[in-house]
Write a structure and sequence with these properties.
The chain is mainly alpha-helical and 105 residues long. Helices cover 59% and strands 0% of the residues.
C-alpha cells in the first residue's frame, strides 16, 4: 500500500514548466551540432540482427520506434513466430521450468 500512497502524492504535484524548459534547453545546448558531428561514424558495422525483448509495458515498443527511425533499421514489431519456434524446439517449457524453480524454493 506504501507504493499507492507515494503514487498519490506524485499525482497531485504540479509540473514546474520553467524547470522542465531549463532541463530541455540544457540538453539542446549539450547535444549541439558540433558534438553530433564529432560523434558521426561511431557504432558497429555489424549486420547481425538485434532483437529487442522485454516484459510487457517495459519500453520495448518505444525502443523499437526510436531505433527504427534510422533509415538502416527495420522494426519488425512483435514476432509471434519466435514464440512458435521456441515452443516447437521445446524451449518454452524449459524457460518456464527454469524461471519457476526460484519461485518454488
Amino acid at each position: 500500500i506504501d507504493h499507492y500512497l507515494k503514487a498519490k502524492t506524485f499525482a497531485t504535484q504540479k509540473l514546474d514548466i520553467a524547470a522542465y524548459r531549463k532541463k530541455v534547453d540544457l540538453l539542446i545546448e549539450l547535444f549541439d551540432a558540433e558534438l553530433l558531428a564529432a560523434k558521426a561514424g561511431f557504432g558497429a558495422p555489424s549486420e547481425v540482427p538485434v532483437f529487442v525483448v522485454g516484459m510487457p509495458r517495459s519500453g520495448t515498443t518505444l525502443t523499437e520506434q526510436i531505433c527504427s527511425s534510422h533509415p538502416e533499421v527495420h522494426g519488425a514489431g512483435e514476432l509471434a513466430k519466435l514464440r512458435r519456434i521456441a515452443i516447437a524446439c521445446g524451449l518454452h517449457e524449459e524457460v518456464g521450468r527454469v524461471l519457476g524453480e526460484p519461485v518454488k524454493s
